Structure prediction request, 361 residues.
Amino acid sequence: MRVSIDARELTGQPTGVGRYLEELLSAWQADPATARHEWMLIAHAPPSRVPAGWSGATHVVPGDGGTRWEQWDLARTLTRLTPDVHFAPGYTAPLTTPAPVVLAVHDVSFCAHPEWFTWREGLRRRSVTAWSARRARLVLAPSAFSAGEIVRHLGVPTERLRVVPLGVRRPRGPVAEVRPPVVLFVGSLFQRRRLDVLIEAFALVAGTHPAARLEIVGANRTRPHVDFDALVETHGLRDRVRLRHWVDEPTLEALYQHASVFVFLSEYEGFGFTPLEAMAHGAVPVVLDTAVAREVYGDAAWRVADGPSLTAQVGHAITALLDGGPDRTRLRDAARPVLASYQWADTGRRVLRALEEAAGA
Prediction:
């Protein structure tokens, strides 16, 4: 079986979809079952995050990597390469392909909450994702919640949906029990992730925990733009809060290893794997109480309810977890069975089965 893969998200500084694809490639590389297939990565620039020793071919098709590149340049390249199946790991695919498509749709926030996007961007995402999903042979969702949203908003029949949860990247070394009072957030900065509430809650904590600090890692993609640096200054936290748009893998690993608390107050996610990664490294997540949070994190996260008291709830949770005690112990103990459910090797095998099913259908 000849498998082509849209590898655009492996260029530059991969986040989200790029990390998802990178982990899949690593899982496939370690699985002898993949050796019987031929793999082809296609990107608009040389991929920067292909696992060492990856044996598949890489095809660079110059361009900007946007929608026009996808629908014209990538489509023409697929016609030339004649794969048996094409894997699109990030929401959209060429609408004309010579092979069946397996499409990963991680969430449909642009449909469920169009107010979070500009008119032009929202229309583009809704249109191209819906067209891609309806033409795909199989659509992969990372959670049962996300699968239901895909059916509801994109009209994909359930028989063409496969729920394939993501895996969790494990720590490279031993997990420390005693940690500095570090609060961490990792992920793109969207309004729905309530970074303003996190900063305000940390301001409540900072007065009683003088050694505590807040680390925020993620590109600011708020629309309209929110100046989080100015918000930090307003609360007098310039020396206590650090914002970075991206960090390399060793730095991210060190942040996970040092964090005591991971705060992720997202109103809407298809899965949300950074709280799980933090959990695997020994931090305790504080998350907004949503259907997907209950499905993915189970009883291993401190859930807070949205509403007028949200900031106070988050401040209380951070304080209690930084202070240690029975809540921290209970949540860390609950993490073990939750984490056991998320293995990248399992994710890789299930995506591979979907590719083989689509190619042979």
